Automatic annotation (TrEMBL):
<dbReference type="InterPro" id="IPR011990">
    <property type="entry name" value="TPR-like_helical_dom_sf"/>
</dbReference>
<dbReference type="GO" id="GO:0009451">
    <property type="term" value="P:RNA modification"/>
</dbReference>
<dbReference type="Pfam" id="PF01535">
    <property type="entry name" value="PPR"/>
</dbReference>
<dbReference type="InterPro" id="IPR046960">
    <property type="entry name" value="PPR_At4g14850-like_plant"/>
</dbReference>
<feature type="repeat" description="PPR">
    <location>
        <begin position="326"/>
        <end position="360"/>
    </location>
</feature>
<dbReference type="InterPro" id="IPR002885">
    <property type="entry name" value="PPR_rpt"/>
</dbReference>
<dbReference type="GO" id="GO:0003729">
    <property type="term" value="F:mRNA binding"/>
</dbReference>
<protein>
    <recommendedName>
        <fullName>Pentacotripeptide-repeat region of PRORP domain-containing protein</fullName>
    </recommendedName>
</protein>
<feature type="repeat" description="PPR">
    <location>
        <begin position="193"/>
        <end position="223"/>
    </location>
</feature>
<keyword id="KW-0677">Repeat</keyword>
<feature type="repeat" description="PPR">
    <location>
        <begin position="224"/>
        <end position="259"/>
    </location>
</feature>
<comment type="similarity">
    <text>Belongs to the PPR family. PCMP-H subfamily.</text>
</comment>
<feature type="repeat" description="PPR">
    <location>
        <begin position="91"/>
        <end position="125"/>
    </location>
</feature>
<dbReference type="Pfam" id="PF13041">
    <property type="entry name" value="PPR_2"/>
</dbReference>
Amino acid sequence: MAIIAALAPPSLANQNKLPSFSSKIPVRMPTTLVFLQMCSNFQEVRQVHAQLVVSGLLDRPPNAGRLLQSYVTVSQIYHASSVFDRISCPDVFAYNNMIRGLILGKCPNNSLLLYNKLLLDGLKPDNYTYTFVLKACSQLSAIFEGRQVHCRIVKAGTAIDTHVHSSLIHMYSSSMDSLVCAEQVLAGFPEENTLAKNSLISGYLSQGEVEKAREMFDNMLEKDDASWSAMIAGYTKNGMSAEALGLFQKMMMISEVSPNEATLVSSLSACAHLGALDQGKWIHAYADKIGAKISVTLGTALIDMYAKCGSIEHGYEVFKKMPHKDLVAWGVIISGFAIHGQAEKCFELFDDMVANGTYPNEIIFVAILSACSHAGYVEMGYQYFYQMVHEYGIRPSIEHYGCMVDLLGRAGRLAEAEELIMSLPEKPNSVIWGALLGACRMHNDLRRGNLAFKHLTELGPMSGDRYKLAGLMFAKAGEKETATKIRKLIRENDLETTRGLSFIEIDGVVHDFEAGTINHSKYNEIYKMWGEGLIDF
DNA sequence: GTAGGGTTAG
């Protein structure tokens, strides 16, 4: 609070006089306004606000705009909005900040309304206005409104800067249909604009156009950290984790820009998908080495990586060290222990979370219920389900019912599982029937298995895996004919079935082995070692 | 006087 202690008395209002002798001398700002710019949190802004009121400085419209801006930078949108409402004739600066604030406050539709009000007021939008409004359009996937903004820019003959250029591309690439417009906008701007190209790369990646993105990335003259980060994140999102990790390694080796937090987070996510523990550990060590603060985001990504790579203890260490834990962090650690079958730890963490004042959401309950299911805790599952509905007012989704069917089914309580399915408020989906089918195969219940199978086929094209499961069930129950029929069906329709995959990591290289196949490059050597009794399958 | 691209739980 050093800033506040040093605050000048209200009489400073008099210093707000422009020096009349020379315009070259910088304008002396009232100290209160200087402090306003230095504020970094809500408390400080509020106190300077009080000073502005007392000193009468707030009566000057530009100062009210500055205060509004400060509330926006500390994300206090409610306060920003009340300042805005008191300005009788807001200028473009005030509008821009309020529009931005509404986007920050997750109300992009309100920022579009405000933009219209700005136009009605007869004000002329500038590049800042366009940047913010286009961002709102992107968030809403409002291509129609975005196009109107674009038309206005062209009609008004505004000279757009790199930010507006990039925002236009971002807006057009928020929908597959207008991706071509994004390409045209990029082509219409002659200079190299890294910002704009980054936008198009992430646009391509969000629409699954991985190759186009990579081509653009490879041809870029000036790649910045965001370019690498967008490409790595895009690979991960499109299920190409090996490529993501490969690109991260390339970045570390050849690129002059160093990875930022988002790059590390995306790369950790790739490690989690691949089970690449050594790589993940390396990234952890690297983050420590460069002195990166383990933020909630980075910490959460680390926990998730350790949990998915089979090292929940390391994940738990990271979790315990995190000074601030949000709902996602709790969710990651709880599902981590759920994956590892440690249901008791999940229950304990759930209680800690509630005691910490964090309110569970539906995803937390999916994790808890799946923990119950894997550990066979039927009564606990019922208890949490009841608690979710009656204490937390969360309406159970089809995923929750799926967990319950799985829980009852695995425990062999198939009659209850069937009863639950019949009482569902919505139409059971393939996850529900699939869970029942799996349980029926486990407990040799042919009647209910048949029922699940029938529903699954009615629900549309079924995966090869489901047919395979059904086939196994019928075969086990002695229904040879049906089993043969299903096997034939899989073969004739060329239905793919996924096989169990296992990964091992040796010297940082991830090797995958598919059950029942021989396709590893070092197969002969491995086979020889096995023959010699050096390794065991 | 204002701006950004990238991220984590089933």
